[in-house]
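Changelog note: in this version the structure field was regenerated for every chain. One regenerated record is shown below for reference.
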Amino acid sequence: MAIEKVPAKNEIMFVWFNRYAGITLKTPSKTLVVDPVDIKPKNFQNVDAVLISHEHYDHLDQSLVSEIYKLSQCMVLADPTSARRLRNVVPSEKLREVQPGLEVKIGEVSVKAEKCNHPPAATPVSFVITSEDGVKVFHTADSLPFPEMASIGEREQFDLVFCTVGIAPGASPETGFEIARLTKPKVAVPYHTGSTADLKRFAELVKREMPKVNCLIPEVGRIYQVSKRCEK
């Protein structure tokens, strides 16, 4: 789903467009789409970059990525396994293979690949996205929590973290909450589930255990706005 409105300074907008990890994220100057599946490419004609976290069917659709590229001439950033599968549909100058620790600039917006604890995938990554105004977003893909998330969260001071709460092996509202506990964002968003109960359970845990963290329960297709956390 496209976001027509332009965020104000120090803000980003996002929309969760499927029941998996698919989101559109818009900064004041750029539009990024993460793990697009189950969508119509015609709705994504003004995209600056597509980000692919791993090769599973609910995260990578080669033909869809190809169509979005043809419509927008966007950059495509993908984990090594996904990048290999996209080499025949995205020109080499527009395709970047990313591994944990690699940072790519999309204009003034930064995308940094980080570790992803999703054992069924071959070479999964998560993404730290930093807007031109310094709004920090952590897209965890299908990741289960891992200890290094604490240091990533301390370093980045996240405004928004997407927390996997279902569908992926081992994922649950409890493991999603652990991601929030480790990363300590301003706003925690549960995703990757078709279960309203999963979303509500995650929210209950955050409210009880982390009262200073805002929990935003997303609805598919609805646009949300998140602002930069106040400096201490």
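Spot check on this record: The longest helix spans residues 196-209. The CA atoms of residues 144 and 170 lie 7 Å apart.
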